[in-house]
Specification:
The radius of gyration is 19 Å and the shape is globular. Strands 7, 8, 9, 10, 11, 12, 13, 14 and 15 form a nine-stranded mixed β-sheet that branches. About 20% of the residues lie in helices and about 25% in strands. The chain has a single domain (about 1-180, about 215-275), classed as Purple Acid Phosphatase, chain A, domain 2. By secondary structure, it is of the alpha/beta class.
Length: about 280
């Protein structure tokens, strides 16, 4: 069972065997990059730790899964990250028995910053119960298509509204979209070097021995609300594109973005993406 933990940018997945808390894109150390520009912002790591431990205490999961981008620097690590990230995970281990990270595009050379018993999973994703999860900067594994629901991070979705005076309102959101399962399967098979023989359904059955089941994709907001996000309701310069939709799955035509449902963190339904683009 999948639950979105209103009003938090987090989800809970419960199976017969375990309970998993899921967050995405904490980007620890983001504020450190502002120092070179002369902008001083105190470290936000302790605030994120407090917010996360409160959720761990409330829901008592067996596992904490982070969908990528633990740190902000892409390849290297800033001195502040060397200080904050090991301490962050050391503290988390007091509240949850298992911590796993799906690698994101900001997580190169993350291993030296992690305690030894933190699991680092591939960017192609993982499965918990009937939910497939990945960061979203790379194509997920075709094995995730045995799940009814996929969850991705990476985009940090927000909506932006402007009033007649020019004031902007920016809110974090969840994006829920239907996917064209056969088309998604065809793309994933080809991206992973598997020739489609007959239908995508037949090919998946032959190579992976399961039937296609994916019906919907959730785009997860960033756990770090200080970071901001990408306005999914603003159009790009090219017709038919959406400014905020990065990552191969959402840039492709295998997801029904026009009819994607947009929800605030408290569960308020704002409308479809095509409706919000017109505002």
């Amino acid at each position: 069972m999948l639950r979105l933990l209103r009003p938090h940018p987090a989800a809970l997945i419960e199976t017969d065997r375990e309970k998993s808390l899921v967050i995405a894109d904490p980007h620890l150390g983001w504020e450190l990059t502002l120092y070179d520009k002369g902008i001083y912002v105190p470290s936000q790591t302790s605030k994120l730790l407090k917010k996360l431990t409160a959720l761990l205490l409330k829901y008592r999961p067996d596992t904490l899964l982070i969908l990528g981008d633990v740190k902000y620097t892409v390849v290297t690590a800033e001195p502040g990250e060397w200080r904050d990230i090991p301490e962050f995970f050391t503290q988390l281990k007091n509240y949850v028995s298992t911590i796993a990270i799906v690698r994101g595009n900001h997580d190169a050379n993350l291993e030296p910053l992690l305690p030894e018993d933190i699991q680092l999973l591939p960017a192609t994703g993982t499965i918990i119960g009937d939910v497939g999860l990945c960061h979203g900067h790379k194509w997920p594994s075709p094995t995730l298509l045995q799940c009814k629901t996929l969850i991705m991070g990476h985009i940090h979705p927000v909506v932006v509204f402007r009033d007649p005076s020019g004031f902007k309102i920016i809110k974090q959101v969840w994006v829920k979209a239907k996917c064209h399962t056969e088309e998604l399967a065809t793309v994933l098979l080809r991206k992973h070097g598997i020739k489609v023989e007959g239908t995508a359904e037949d090919t998946v059955k032959k190579h992976y021995n399961f039937a296609l089941r994916t019906k919907q994709i959730f785009l997860m907001p960033s756990f770090n609300d200080f970071l901001g996000g990408r306005p999914v309701n603003e159009k790009a310069q090219r017709k038919g594109q959406t400014l905020g939709m990065i990552g191969p799955v959402f840039r492709s035509k295998v997801v029904d973005l026009d009819n994607a449902e947009i929800y605030l963190l408290d569960g308020t339904y704002l409308g479809t993406l095509s409706q919000l683009r017109r505002l």
